[in-house]
Amino acid sequence: MPLSQEEINRPLSPHLLIYKPQITSVLSIMHRGTGIVLFGGSLLWALWFVLLAAGSTAYIQGQTLLLSPFGLIILLGWSFSFFYHFCNGIRHLLWDIGVGFELSTVRKSGWTVIFASIFLTSVAWALGVMNGKGLL
Questions:
Q1: Each residue of 105-136: pLDDT tens digit?
Q2: What's the CA gap between 47 and 66, in Å, rounded?
Q3: Which of 96, 108, 100, 131 has the alpha carbon at shortest distance from 27?
Q4: Where are the domains of the chain?
Q5: Is residue 132 helix, strand or coil?
Q6: Euclidean distance between CA atoms 50 and 121, whole angstroms
Q7: Which of 37, 72, 103, 112 could form an S-S bond across to 81 if both were Cys, CB 3.0 to 4.6 Å?
Q8: CA separation (Å) from 36 to 71, 89, 130, 134?
Q9: Does CATH place domain 23-131 in 3.20.20.70?
Q10: What's the CA gap between 3 and 14, in Å, rounded?
Q11: How far is the CA of 60 from the CAs of 75, 88, 125, in angstroms?
Q12: Maximum Cα–Cα distance across the chain
């Protein structure tokens, strides 16, 4: 059965290629991504406890891997994910009570989440390096 002119001209279903990325969509995708990273980091943390229980040799090998440049990048990403997910979660809690839905406020709170996440990650790592006698 051939399509009518009306069916041919109807709009396409929305998908990522149609929309220009906006801060709200980017932050929404980042929130999901950081949730996945946090899950993976939780598995890594559980593995760290298993290595701790397995004895000093296994623990030292695990610590050597975590404190390698690759391991530090993983830990940095995990800590940023934690702070981002935390800050964005607070933003969502405010939305749940009906605060911050104005478009200008949504943009400002989005940028606040990004900058707060970077700031909190930086502070945590600076304190960790100072108190841990230097990781690097």
A1: 999 999 999 999 999 999 999 998 888 766 55
A2: 11
A3: 108
A4: 23-131
A5: coil
A6: 26
A7: 37
A8: 18, 15, 29, 29
A9: no
A10: 21
A11: 17, 35, 21
A12: 75
Please give the span between the terminal C-alpha atoms of the chain, in angstroms, as a whole number.
69
* Cα distances (angstroms) measured from residue 91 to each of 40, 53, 95, 117, 118: 23, 38, 6, 12, 16
- pLDDT tens digits, 17-36: 777 888 998 999 999 999 99
- Amino acid of residue 77: G
Q: What is the DSSP letter of 133?
A: T
Look-up of token digits 């406020």: 105
What is the spatial distance between Cα 80 and Cα 110, in angstroms, rounded to a whole number? 15
Q: State both tokens at 99.
A: 């605060």
**Three-state SS at 128:** helix
What predicted TM-score, i.e. pTM, was given to this entire model? 0.83
